[in-house]
Amino acid sequence: MPFADELIRCDLACGISADGHWRGWYALRVDGLALRALGLHPDQPTSVIIASSPPRWWHAAAERNAER
Asked: What is the residue-wise DSSP string for the chain?
């Protein structure tokens, strides 16, 4: 993982859900400065989608070519 241990916080909450089964929920938090260094902080323009996604055929072709 590209982050130092002190920049990441992982929490786990457990409880009984409405159907009576035990469930667990994770919360993963990363320090904003660590995200900024990778260009992933929400305040940075590089973290915003600025164009449409490639067409479906492009993804399928990439997956086929990755298997070679």
From this structure: --S-GGGEEEEEEEEE-TTS-EEEEEEEEE-HHHHHHTT--TTSGGGS--SPPPPHHHHHHHHHHHT-
